[in-house]
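Entry type: protein chain
Record version: 2
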Amino acid sequence: MNADFKSGFVTLIGRPNVGKSTLMNRIIGQKIAITSKKPQTTRNRIQTVYTDMDRGQIVFLDTPGIHKAKNKLGEYMVSVAEHTLKDVDVILWLVEPTNFVGAGERHIAEQLKHAGVPVLLVINKTDTVKKEEILTFIDTYRRIYDFDEIIPASALRGDNTDTVIDMIFKYLPYGPMFYDEDTVTDQPERQIAAELIREKALRMLEEEIPHGIAVTIESMKERKNSGITDIEAVIICERESHKGIIIGKGGSMLKKIGSSARTDIEKLLDRKVNLKLWVKVRKGWRDSDVQMKNFGYNPKDV
């Protein structure tokens, strides 16, 4: 290992839907975290690894958006995000390009004052604004916190994401690798497969339903000598009326979600997938400690 090798943990924080997962997927070069235009897409802390054998290794922690919690699941998500601030070497704060800094951003700035590590601000989605406006956005954010660096970027297009990596390495401590160089995530394949199904449901379903869904993989087995993996998964929702919408007329919506998810899972596993989906109702699961734990959201893990 060369003496100049750096390694450390970097958390991506920000309000829901600012592009944290899109940026992480872009840097890793692979789809690990799910994305959608709906808030609360990321629910758990997802660890991914970026390795550059000349410079070092960055372990990214993609967290749920920091927001005002409305139920136990929301409290769990905010707790995950805020706890992560204490466990890292660098904080990457993603924001949207704007001259208005709301209460949500100011809350995050307050949290950062106790972090004691370098904070890099990434003004994401610069592809949606005029270039000459970007300086005014930088000026706006500079007033609420003394950032170590401010980087305008577009995770979606890959604009300036190499500068984001350069700046992270600038502030990382020297140290050995935490993971093998070919590791890209600590998430088990089952977990990623469940999340990919949830992503498709988030994208295709109506506004009020997605917050109330979870996905569990009941079984995932490789068929011997066939190159096919059989997956059985259940989409959990909170109401009978939601179940009908998720299934759709003659099963059309469920088929659409399954077909779209299967394509992504096949890319992930690099093999053919036979995916079977069911829908079950679990009333009020987002306010039940036992059910949240069953679906992979255990407050004791925070």
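Comment: The beta strands are 6-13, 46-52, 56-62, 90-95, 119-123, 149-152, 214-222, 228-237, 272-281.
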